[in-house]
Design brief:
This protein is of the alpha/beta class. It has a single domain, classed as CBS-domain (Roll), CATH 3.10.580.10. The strands form 2 sheets. It has a 3-stranded mixed β-sheet. A 3-stranded mixed β-sheet has the order 4-5-6. Strand 1, helix 2 and strand 2 form a beta-alpha-beta unit. The relative contact order is 0.23.
Length: 157
């Protein structure tokens, strides 16, 4: 079992805000898009997930893994199946003013590699991923321990 990531950051990461390291845009698709359209969008933009939008609100998230393991492997027709029909995870979020350590804890507790970043008023501001944490902060130990924690299949205590 991997060690918990909580409280392992350097002092700088304890005060560094997610708004400083996030990717400041969100890739999304309307819930009526097919699995093929969504996969093509992911390939074109070299991304692994998109947020699902319905009535101009983010309703969920779908990953490349969801498309393959939950839809295609179940025999769903990727041309006609809409992403809104596929079980997708609710987006886990943090705020722009949360610290990197706060975001790491949220990722760990929810076993997710990316967070939707919200402005203080609740509007989407961007996305932060484990890759952003690994490449945009000086604390490689924090990123490594987060990856190790997320790579375990067991729920941490």
């Amino acid at each position: 079992m991997a060690a918990r990531v909580t409280n392992i950051g350097l002092e700088r990461t304890k005060s560094m805000q997610i708004g400083d390291i996030m990717t400041p845009f969100i890739r999304s698709m309307y819930h009526e898009a097919s699995l093929v359209q969504t996969a093509m969008h992911m390939k074109m933009h070299d991304i692994r997930s998109v947020y699902i939008v319905d009535r101009n609100r983010i309703r969920g998230m779908i990953t490349d893994r969801d498309i393959v393991l939950d839809a295609v492997s179940a025999g769903l027709n990727a041309m006609s199946t809409r992403i809104g029909q596929v079980t997708c995870r609710e987006p886990v979020s943090c705020r722009t003013d949360d610290t990197v350590n706060d975001a790491v804890l949220i990722m760990e507790e929810n076993n997710t590699r990316r967070l939707l970043v919200l402005e203080p008023d609740g509007k989407p501001a961007g996305v932060v991923s484990i890759g952003d944490i690994a490449t945009r902060i000086d604390n490689k130990s924090l990123a490594g321990r987060l990856l190790a924690s997320l790579s375990t299949s067991q729920k941490l205590p």
